[in-house]
Amino acid sequence: MKYEDKTQRIIQAFYKVYNTLGFGFLERVYQNSLFLELKEAGFHCHAQQPIKVYYNNQQVGDYYADIVVDNSIILELKAAEALCEAHEFQLINYLKATEIEIGLLLNFGKQPEFKRKIFSNDRKNMAHG
């Protein structure tokens, strides 16, 4: 799998933050903590990175990715009771709107959970071509 080693290291950092903080904080607290943990692990990270959304070749809005790691993996963080399908579609839309192919949905809920999403650039090119 593409970036398997990186995603494993990110997931380990996610569990380290979860195990340290536990459940019940605001999403921003987890985002800031994970950002620090990833930087310490040697990753190059950007928080709240804007992603432009286009419709008929015109910009119609912006997304803000929680964390982008090494310009190759988008992290979407939640502090929800549980992950739902809408969270997954949000991440897939981020992937569709960028050249980034890999995304991780990380939930700091009552039980920590994550999902890995892939949207290949080949599929994006077909959709835009």
TrEMBL record:
<dbReference type="Pfam" id="PF13366">
    <property type="entry name" value="PDDEXK_3"/>
</dbReference>
<protein>
    <submittedName>
        <fullName>GxxExxY protein</fullName>
    </submittedName>
</protein>
<dbReference type="InterPro" id="IPR026350">
    <property type="entry name" value="GxxExxY"/>
</dbReference>
